[in-house]
Design a protein that fits this description.
By secondary structure, the protein is α+β, with helices and mostly antiparallel strands. It has two domains: 1-60; 81-194, Tetrahydropterin Synthase, Chain A (2-Layer Sandwich). 57% of the residues lie in helices and 14% in strands. The chain contains seven helices and four strands; from the N terminus they run αααβββααααβ. The protein is elongated and about 80 Å long. The protein starts with a helix and ends with a strand.
Length: 195
């Protein structure tokens, strides 16, 4: 009798072991296939419906014509928004004068032993109609003042909340010192990159 019960028990155990192996082929691959199909769809949905609206709302100040120019890669695409508002001779439409400071200012970040740098483009804004002429006349001095101010910043200074506003304040003081009086009332930093 022992043999009969062992014989009947063996096929039952063998049948139970064989059932998951034969029925688990497609079911075992189902989570992998679902991931391969659903993950790209979820990533696309998050990018289109979450990330892009947030990015566009943060930079939605540019006009549609500027976006078209940027897509075409024209020379006007790289100009800051403050320059786009300019009328003749650097005069802005709202009575203020906006003047871009020559080329970008590139400096080594303090305390990095030359391994990190900061690149900034600067636009000066003021009320004086002669601001453009003064900036062109003192271009080298203004660029030197900007480089000196920016080169004194460490990575910690640059990563603090409100660092750009602090830098704007320091640059306004430095530029007004060079130009004499208070011709510069605002500064825009359309490009501010730390590498």
């Amino acid at each position: 009798m022992k043999d009969a019960s062992s014989a009947t028990a063996a096929p039952a155990d063998g049948g139970a072991a064989a059932a998951p192996a034969s029925g688990g082929g497609f079911k075992a691959w189902l989570p992998l296939l679902a991931n391969l199909i659903l993950m790209p769809a979820i990533a696309y949905g998050v990018a289109v419906f979450v990330l892009l609206p947030k990015l566009n709302s943060g930079g939605a100040s540019a006009a549609p014509e500027e976006h078209a120019a940027a897509k075409e890669g024209g020379e006007h695409a790289a100009k800051p928004a403050a320059e786009k508002k300019e009328g003749k001779a650097g005069e802005a439409t709202d009575g203020k004068v906006a003047v871009s400071l020559g080329n970008k200012v590139l400096v080594n970040v303090s305390g990095t032993m030359g391994t990190r740098y900061l690149m900034v483009s600067i636009t000066l804004v003021g009320e004086s109609p002669s601001l453009k002429d003064e900036v062109e006349k003192h271009d080298a001095q203004l660029r030197d003042a900007a480089a000196s101010t920016l080169a004194s910043k460490t990575i910690i200074d640059l990563e603090k909340p409100g660092a750009r506003n602090m830098i704007r304040t320091e640059l306004i003081a430095a530029f007004n010192n060079v130009l004499g009086g208070n011709p510069v009332s605002e500064i825009y930093l359309p490009e501010f990159a730390i590498q």
